[in-house]
Design a protein that fits this description.
The protein is of the alpha/beta class. It is built from eight helices and eight strands; from the N terminus they run E-H-E-H-E-H-E-H-E-H-E-H-E-H-E-H. Helix 3 runs parallel beside helix 4. The chain is globular, with a radius of gyration of 16 Å.
């Protein structure tokens, strides 16, 4: 099982790594679903982190349809961030018809210049999740799809997540399904058992009092790891 944890600051990143996370997703403005982080944070965190750091590329939270000005901001951010030791870019773009915008996606993948990509929860606003997944699977640089199964909480989309996991096939054959939004230390074990998912994503679920912008809580992290790895005593 892979555990990805959202970090907002260098201290968050250190705490996530020290508490046993396998990977960090670095964002800003978590209250809006995560936006592109400050360049100085990305530089510091990627330089010191012992675990992979995936960096959000999202200029605003108005929609997942992007103007040419938005695209220039995203491409410029990616150019700057490529100087650092990134695990992946996290991005997504849709058309007005709520399909994957392949024209803009290809431009972003070109800008990634070989750095792997996670397609973020823009995926959950697609008109058909299976159709969107099959479109993304055509692009080898897209290694992960972050999804709540099209629902505000992934706990209300367990059947859909299980379908996507089956669609992804064996590990490495297609983008990995990374399930997130609404998971808690108390619910994650049963969710994994029911869906067969192999990677989970935590934000507020591992923070103090379950609050989105609060510091990471080592006790909640420990509870998640115990639920994911009950064989480890």
């Amino acid at each position: 099982m892979l555990l990805e944890v959202i970090a907002l600051t260098p201290e968050d990143a250190r705490q996530a790594a020290a508490s046993g996370a396998d990977r960090i997703e670095l964002v800003s403005v978590i209250e809006e679903g995560g936006l592109t982080p400050a360049l100085q944070f990305a530089e510091e965190i990627t330089a010191e982190s012992a675990i992979p750091v995936h960096v959000m590329i999202r200029p605003h939270s108005r929609s997942f349809r992007y103007s040419e000005e938005d695209m220039e901001l995203m491409l410029g951010s990616m150019k700057e961030l490529r100087r650092f030791r990134l695990g992946a870019f996290v991005l997504g773009v849709l058309t007005a018809e709520r399909t994957v915008d392949e024209e803009k996606l290809k431009r972003l993948l070109d800008a990634a210049d070989g750095v792997p990509v996670t397609f973020h929860r823009a995926f959950d606003e697609a008109r058909n999740l299976e159709e969107a997944y099959e479109t993304l699977a055509k692009h080898p640089l897209i290694r992960t799809v972050l999804t709540s199964g099209g629902m505000p909480s992934v706990l209300d989309a367990q059947h859909q997540i299980a379908k996507l996991v089956r669609l992804s096939g064996s590990p490495g054959s297609a983008p990995e399904v990374l399930a997130g939004s609404g998971l808690t230390p108390e619910t994650v074990a049963d969710f994994v058992r029911r869906t067969g998912v192999r990677a989970v994503h935590f934000g507020s679920g591992v923070r103090q009092n379950g609050k989105a912008a609060a510091p990471i809580d080592p006790l909640r992290m420990a509870a998640v790891l115990a639920a994911l790895h009950p064989e480890v005593k």
